[in-house]
Amino acid sequence: MKTRVFYFSGTGNTFALTKKIAEKTGSDLISIPKVMNSEKIHIDAENMIIVFPSYMAAVSGVPLIVERFVRKIDNINELIIFAVCNCGGYPSVNALPSLHKLHRIIKYCGGKLYAHYSLRLPMNNLDYDHIPIPINKNSEDIIRKSKMKTERICCSIINKKKSGYRLLKSLFFFMMKPVYKLISRAVIKELKAKAHEPMDREMTYHELVPLTDKSIIVDENCTGCGICAKVCPAGNIKIVNKKPEFLHRCEICFACDEWCPTASIHHWSRASGVKYHHPEISLADMIKEQCDHI
Ligand SMILES: Cc1cc2nc3c(=O)[nH]c(=O)nc-3n(C[C@H](O)[C@H](O)[C@H](O)COP(=O)(O)O)c2cc1C
Are 19 and 29 contacting, i.e. CB atoms less than 8 angstroms apart? Predict the structure, then answer.
């Protein structure tokens, strides 16, 4: 049975994870941004694995491009679908709601999520300040543990093991609903500020995210090298007069920010932030494997 692994990655965590999954399960690895130009996507395999990072778990959890990808699949009802979500915080609070959201999108499109798995990788902006419970911040240690978890996930996929605890999960979501609602309100407010939209205007998460590039800062160290435009999986950057210009179809993946060779691009006024990308993934790999369609 043929298996295809589709992934989306901003700073290399998901890419490193997907490479391992593809290798262990003997599957072909395909970048989601590379197939997004087609109006419809036909998956020529029996099994499909979707690997993605959790984005704003309390509001959505699924990157917009991953959601659009799923909606484009024209034979979703024929597939055995596995999903692997990675996140920077606690998987139960962050990856689980993201997987639940993906499950709902797949179901809406007529498919079924066969099994889902989650694991932790470093928070790609290395900002752990908003997590109220103490958490391991050592990237090396997190990556080492993620490799063991990846092995277990691959075994489960190969053995077609279903993810269990349905009742527990439903109970968890029921209990967390008011908390997510509260966080969600705060996140939308923050996104409106980043998108330079008035607070009293009704706007959805899906409308706001692409516009948040309005608050990306490019500092005086920018040389106009154009790496940001090459590494952006959304094709959201154009170099004009040796400076990046953002086209308001941002996926908030932080790729431009974290891969900039002169560390001159700062998301959301995060001017003093330390940069991160997965240590085993190179910029050349990211551009070649994920973005060379642009
Ligand atoms: C815009 C954005 C939102 C994120 N939201 C969450 C979140 O709600 N919970 C969480 O645990 N991690 C969150 N993360 C962290 C990522 O899920 C995590 O670092 C992931 O490994 C990044 O994968 P990548 O390197 O493939 O892009 C967020 C990252 C970004 C860029």
Answer: yes
